[in-house]
Amino acid sequence: MKNKTEKINIKVALTLATAALLGTSNLAQANTASTANAEDNSWEFDSAFLFYSEVDRVSAGEAIFNAKKTFANDEILNLKLTVDALTGASANGAVAQPTVQTFTRPSGKGEYTIAAGDTPLDDTFHDMRVQLNGQWTQPIAPNYTASGGLHISKEYDYLSLGVNGNLAFDFDRKNSTFSVGFSYFQDTFTPEGGLPKAFSSMPKVSDSVGDFAETRIDSEDTKTTTDILLGFTQVINRRMIMQFNYSYSIVDGYLTDPFKVISKVDSGTGLTQDNIYEHRPDSRVKQSVYAQSLYHFDSSVLDVSYRYMWDDWEIDSHTIDTRFRIPLGDAFGTESYLQPHFRIYQQSAAEFYQPFLIDGDTLPTYASADYRIGEMTTYTVGLKYGLLVNNGHDLSFRLEYYRQAPTDAGFDAPGVLNEVDLYPTIDAIIAQVTYSF
Amino acid sequence: MKKNIKLVLFIPIIIGATGCSSLGVEPWERDLLAKDEMSLNASPVDAALDDHIYFSKEASSGGKGFGGGGCGCN
After folding, report:
1. Which residues of chain A does B35 touch, with a Cβ-Cβ cutoff of 8 Å?
2. Fewer CB within 10 Å: C terminus or N terminus of chain A?
3. Mean pLDDT of A375-395
4. Is A26's pLDDT higher than 90?
């Protein structure tokens, strides 16, 4: 009983703190949080910590704190704080070679060395990001619900500002819902070392300041993303609900990755002659269709979704994501469940994706060796275990294995490139703890 | 002729309407649908974390919700 009181006090304290932050401090409201009857009119909190780690590459930690308040008239305020930190190495785009390779860091100051036969990884990256989201949702007329939100995210070299709006219309006894949504993001990228000139050679550390500056076009650039989302939700029967979405997204601006290079290799030997900065188009139009279905068996719940995405970079992708929630009853002395998760994703390569360029050939208009826009299949297998702790608070643990397996889209590799791994797989572990109260 | 066209247009609407009328439930049949785990976004925190991972590692994003911007990870 003592324990129960303490838990409630944490919630009351957080409610007070949140209310104070919002400038709407209201003791009476906070007090109601401790009475079960007023639970609907109080704050709900979700907190989560996720650890992501790739073998020999990137590690990241991400924490989320979400506060949601439902008001008496069905208005909902949602506030979310996300903090993440990233460190480790990521592929710089160059091909592996049978000899040691040296690359200049993006700042132009310092270099890193890659052993013979290894995929070149740039270990320069350390970043921390803070993100704030606010969302307000309310009924505006019978059967109509409107929602609007703001987004701000800041990291060392990146600022993202966003707004979104959504309108939903319920009909047929609320068994069907049409929704239309809109979002707009304005991102500003200020990368360390500035933006490199398209296809310019990676400078040497020994180059003068002037020579380094010659390879740069600017210190920052912007990108805008406009999304339109149409949705239809239908209750099929007492056990089943389905959702269908169509989305249209226009991305405009600087879409090149300023840290990525592409190797120019000799057509006979396959030996690298030069590493030049990549160049992508300055616009991308993406579309997708998405279908999701939830089915309630006698006690377990199956959640299956499929997404087909296509864009004008000639990438198309298929994603199947499924979760199966199996209640374990009170087997462990408290109500708990297990939830296996399986996801498979497959994408084709962008039309300008090239794992390398042949030295002496005419340069294409655009080229990138970034494996993330190459042909690839990824797999996720995971398991979540959730249990109810004091006062019906949820505690859950999730452990997943994620494999990215890039594949050869039919490029003829000359000479030594046949002896190195041009399409290395990447294995990662995802571990997460969530506590909702 | 005009009448026929109208009829042709009308038939799918009738089929659609009668088809749909067998879908859905009455308010008192929502016991299972009302459960948290039957929500289309049952774990929004998991979904947000997953979206961030896959947005930064793969060439696709969004579909279920908005897929735009937000980080310099891609």
Report:
1. 296, 301
2. N
3. 93
4. no
